[in-house]
Amino acid sequence: MIKLAVFDLDGTLLDTVPDLTAAMNFALRQMNKPEITIDQARAFIGNGIKMFAKRAISGSYETDTGDNLADEAVSYFKSYYSKHLTDHTTPYDGIAELISKLRKSGVKTAVFSNK
Predict the structure, then answer these.
(1) Global pTM?
(2) Sign of the CA dihedral running 5, 9, 14, 17
(3) Which sequence positions are flagged as catalytic?
């Protein structure tokens, strides 16, 4: 019998992509760079904020963007995201029911996240 279920937060329990996209687009606007779509953000997210910034700045997986430019974007991103990280974040469909069902079955639940 399963006694414990541990979940990641972003991308597992919660759809955080809309807020991550908004924060990155804020950064891109500050730098006079083209904004990205939610679909692009979904594809670019992974391997940390700096890599997300490099991909967003270049508009592709080509990440030859200089570190200084990416660092600037990360700074703007963090400034915005710290104030807006839950504006549009929602649980994925069925997550609340799943957690409830696990708990009713005696399974302890936990979240392991860098947030």
Answers:
(1) 0.87
(2) negative
(3) 8
